[in-house]
Amino acid sequence: MIDWLVDPVRHTFMQHAYLAILMVGVICGVTGVFVTLRGLAFMGDAMAHAVFPGVVIAFLTGGNFLVGALIAAVIVSLGIGAVSQSTRLSNDTAIGVFFAGAFALGIALISAQRTYTRDLNSFLLGSILGVSREDLLLTALVGLFVLAVVILFRRELTTVAFDRTFARATGLKLWRYDQLFLIILSLAIVISLQTVGNVLVLAMLVTPAATARLLTDRLKVMIGLSALIGALSGWIGLTISYHAGIASGASIVLVATTIFLVAFLFAPRTGIITSTIRRRLHYHHPEQDTFPDDLQVSD
Amino acid sequence: MIEPVTPNSTILTVERLGVHFEERPALEDISLSFSAGETVGLLGPNGAGKSTLLRCIAGMIPPTHGSVSFGPGADGGKARAVYVPQRSSVDWTFPVSVLDVALMALRTKRSRFRPFSRADEAIALDALERVGMRNSAPHQIGALSGGQQQRVFLARALMQEGDFYLLDEPFTGVDVPTQDMLIELFGKLREEGKTIIYATHDLAQAHRSSTRIVLIRRRIVADGPPDVVMTAENLLSCFGGGLPDLAGSRS
């Protein structure tokens, strides 16, 4: 068991991968709490696809793909914000327009390349073994920034998510914090692209947070648990992927999904099976109820 | 009894206010002034513009015409409004406790670099005590009944320490104990010189718990003490044919 866990960590390329996925797990776990609480899963998925052209352009011009994705993410999040603010279109319609449009642009750009299929594959599914020192440094910096913003603006982000009318009545500029949150969200997505890939990053945002929500009613605890579950899924998933030779992104997401299902069934208070068992324990059998103890002794 | 700091001074003036939503007028030509210590019931049918007026005073909707201006508050500065929205605008499944919700009031007053202190929590618990919810402090907000939830939002509003309180339908959908608590709280706030302006469509409740009634149906129908304002004629012209029984019994 120890060998099973330690063996992959011996390789330098795996050390990079582990560090990257642990950071991604924590950052997506924290950001994902607000994604799930605000019901913005679709937004998260859209954003993951929308940064695609930025990655492709960075790849084609030899720039850093994190920077490219970041620029694309900021443009798209501002675009979505602007369209849903100023027109009759609902938020998810605006998201749909930008998400598909940006993704198509990315595919158009990369399909002109000769190595089309291979490149597309590594973008969509991640290529965790190619994590460089610079990537790690950039991931850490972006991650620290995300965490700092979430911590500093925790009250604003919470109030805006929980009670928008109150937030507005107490002078919060809602669009400003919505925009801030979109930027945080896109940053979290961008640093996850290399490890889990475009298609599966949504799971890193939603699944650990959803699992944490099943386990607690306290926001602080939820954020901590979500980060922990994200990191744990990353660690175990990567290890399984190493030994079983399966795609790392898929392996990580499957571990996260398994943890979610376990919580869904067995969470202390909300689990399907746990609550059924508890109901059974409190259920009085009719034949016992016929002669309650106090009646028998009252003669 | 605590004397108001500035007894009967004008705390809020609404002048020729109009609010239109995409050309559709929701409020027209509203002129009102409010004094410290008044408890004013805004009474009118659904869609009369009561909520719009409250939100406009709270600064959440810009007026299309006219103006809202604040007099001096208790601390000498501009009077501060505290708006208590209708319950329904909240995500009840949100993982916050009753205490967390109350503490939200301190966001604007405390440093973002420090967590809330024991003293802050004590302030929140005191406010919850005032609305009879202290024992529910650790519970998740969605686990409470409608009336209890409304009380928690009142506690949060009390912690904001406004000069006047704007309450949107505080009596709607709450249990009888909460209604009694509200009436008692209105009395205490009045003694402290706070002004309360609340929207309601419940005639009996408005009559029982207001020092002044403003009948409103897009425009002001009548304005004055409950007994003077709530005549069959006024109510009929405000509510239309919606309340024939009550109008009949009063004529």
Describe what you observe in this structure:
The complex is a heterodimer of chains A (299) and B (251). Chain A has 299 residues and is mainly alpha-helical. Chain A has a domain of 199 residues: ABC transporter involved in vitamin B12 uptake, BtuC (Orthogonal Bundle). Chain A contains 16 helices and no strands. The C terminus of chain A is likely disordered. Chain B is of the alpha/beta class and 251 residues long. Chain B has 2 domains: 170 residues, P-loop containing nucleotide triphosphate hydrolases (Rossmann fold); 74 residues, no CATH class. Chain B is 33% helix and 25% strand. In chain B, the strands form 2 sheets. Chain B has a 6-stranded mixed beta sheet with strand order 5-6-7-3-8-9, with helices on both faces. In chain B, strands 2-1-4 form a 3-stranded antiparallel beta sheet, covered by helices on one side. In chain B, β8 and β9 form a beta hairpin. In chain B, α3 packs across α4. The chains are: A mainly alpha (299), B alpha/beta (251). Chains A and B meet through α9 and α10 of A and loops of B.
Descriptive labels:
heterodimer, A: about 300 residues, mainly alpha, ABC transporter involved in vitamin B12 uptake, BtuC, 16 helices, about 85% helix, about 0% strand, disordered C terminus, B: about 250 residues, alpha/beta, Rossmann fold, 2 domains, 6-stranded mixed beta sheet, 3-stranded antiparallel beta sheet, 9 helices, disordered N terminus
